[in-house]
Amino acid sequence: MKTLLRGLLAIALTVPVFLGIAPINALLAWLYSESGYQALGPLFHLFCTVGVEGHESVITSLLLTLSFVLSALIVWLGAALLSRRR
Hints:
The protein is mainly α. The chain has helices at residues 2-21, 25-31, 34-46, 51-85. Helix content is 87%, strand content 0%. The relative contact order is 0.17. The mean pLDDT is 91. Keywords: Membrane, Transmembrane, Transmembrane helix. The chain crosses the membrane at residues 7-32, 59-82.
């Protein structure tokens, strides 16, 4: 039950974390630079994306995945701190 609740909390925190990550100019500048496109090239080929719209979808999915991982880490660390406090 605790695992399910933590998973749901991580899912709920994904969008706020995404909204916190999205406006970071340095990250976006790298993602849309030539080196960013070279680094993400295998993902573009894996998902057979063509054009700007396809690349935008891959970049958005990557940022959402990163947001979920960060929110799961936040939930896990919060749960660990609360359990030690008791």
